[in-house]
Amino acid sequence: MSEIDAIRHQIQRCWSFPAGARNAEKLVIRIKVFLNTDGSLSKSPEIVGSYYKTGDLFYDSAAESARRAVLKCAPLKHLPVDKYARWREITLTFNPREMLGG
Amino acid sequence: MWISFKRRLTFLIALALVWPAMVIAPTAQAALEIDITKGNVDPLPVAIPDFYGADAPASELGKDIGQVITANLNRSGLFRSLNPKSFIQTPESLQARPRFADWRVLNAQALVSGKVGVESDGRLRVVFRLWDVLAGEQMTAFSYFTTPNNWRRIAHVISDAIYNRLTGEAGYFDTRIVYVAEKGPRGKNQKKFLAIMDQDGYGHRFLTNGSYLVLTPRFSPSRQEITYLSYYRNTPRVYLYNIDTGQQEILGDFPGMTYAPRFSPDGDKVIMSMARGGKSNIYVMDLRTRIINQMTDTPAIDTSPCYSPDEKFIVFNSDRGGRKQLYVMAARPRSVAKRISFGKGQYTTPVWSPRGDLIAFTKSRKGKFYIGVMRPDGSGERLLSGSFLDEGPTWAPNGRVLMFFRQEPSDKRGNGRTRLWSVDLTGYNKREIVTPIDASDPAWSPLSPLNR
Question: How many CB atoms lie within 10 A of CB B346?
Fold first, then answer.
């Protein structure tokens, strides 16, 4: 399993997303994550983009649910220390398309 | 010409400067990109301690408010309240600031804190805050003033605020349900009453005394008013009923039998069916001018009309094609209706979702009845429940939850349970709504105006 699969697997288990939400298939949330060598957070995860807190409550709540997924999952496990340079900074793109079943 | 060339040149130069940077970037200090395309739909763990009150009466009310909020959020299926016995921080010390570590160890993701006090003028003051436990941030805060006997509504309003802030969608807790209460074995002598209750079953009361038959009650979106069908000298007629005053009036003097009434989304019109000479068409009455417009004109039976939320379209069912199917037409008299349902079986009682994206319906096939939804163009049909008889869907005002009634088969004496059920749009979280006697034909109110 690559470090990408390891991270994806852990974050997906931590992300609680309310199914049936309106226009959820169009939702895209980007979160920047900064990690220490032991997989803990070196600083708070950042919601990327200028859309946050500009009046779209649905986007805000989804962005916060994604941020909570990162906070809940930390420290991330099973990451190869020799490849730390590769995963010290990650951008996660959240889109619940696989949960909606078309 | 020269200007345009110069511009293009500038653009090319700019592109040349940017391009190499873009190519080099990934090999340098680029962030690893990972797509997260699914999560879990487990209910969100929320801590809801009693609201703090400085004296015994306030503390008692604070406990009650906390319990109503807890019951609402749990019933939605989207949240799971944590056991208050596990809480480390007390409601009183929570007023200063949450100790987030104390809530993180309990796996709480959100925390509700609140305070109840009685003002010198006798009014109740309720303050509430919602916290993101993992981020250590306040998500929202409100304070409300009201009379003490209004505490339950405040609990519903707070529940809606929590639901709204955590899901991004409007709530549906400060709402009521009107339905037809049924007494006695099924058949001619069964009594039917109009009844109303809060969404959580409290405040139940009968609005009529059962001396005449009532059917298909529907809420006005803008006034404390219901439209329904009742019989006068064995002829079905459409009535309006004012919940506050108890006054009722017949809606117009029609030459035929009128039925299946429903308010338009602006509350200014009632759309209904009128039967005359073996055919049945759709009519709209403007409540201010009392002018009536005929919308469909067929020799078939067109019934159960419902407007789209923007009032541009009407959905209804018709047997014009042989079997009952759903049709959508522009909301103009005699415009062309397009069939949208094409599955096997018959489709009836279409109801447009308040958020516009779906139409709920009853479907019957091979002796079973189902509640389902489809998009307004007829695509994406999904069945959410099915039984011997499931019928008559109504939407919660946020378009996320449906209520309907389920009738079990009768025994030899005509007895059998008929009850209200709710189901989430996803098909999960099916629940029976507790009513004192048998119940059918529910209608969900809009979110209540705060001055009710």
Answer: 18
pTM of the model: 0.89
Per-residue confidence band for A57, with pLDDT thresholds at 50, 70 and 90: confident
Domain limits of chain B?
A: 11-167, 176-451
Q: Fold for domain B176-451?
A: Neuraminidase (2.120.10)
Task: Choose from A1, A25, A64, A87 for mutation: most chain B CBs within 10 A.
Answer: A64
Question: From the list A13, A17, A64, which residue is nearest B132 (CB)?
Answer: A64
CB pairs < 8 Å spanning A and B: 118
User: What is the ipTM metric for this complex?
Assistant: 0.93
User: Shortest CB distance from B109 goes to which of A57, A62, A68?
Assistant: A68
8 Å CB contact between B439 and B214: no
**Exposed, middle or buried by CB within 10 Å (0-12, 13-18, 19+), for B330?**
middle
Question: Which class does domain B11-167 fall in?
Answer: alpha beta
Q: Which amino acid is at B452?
A: R
Which tokens in the block code for residue B36? 């997260």
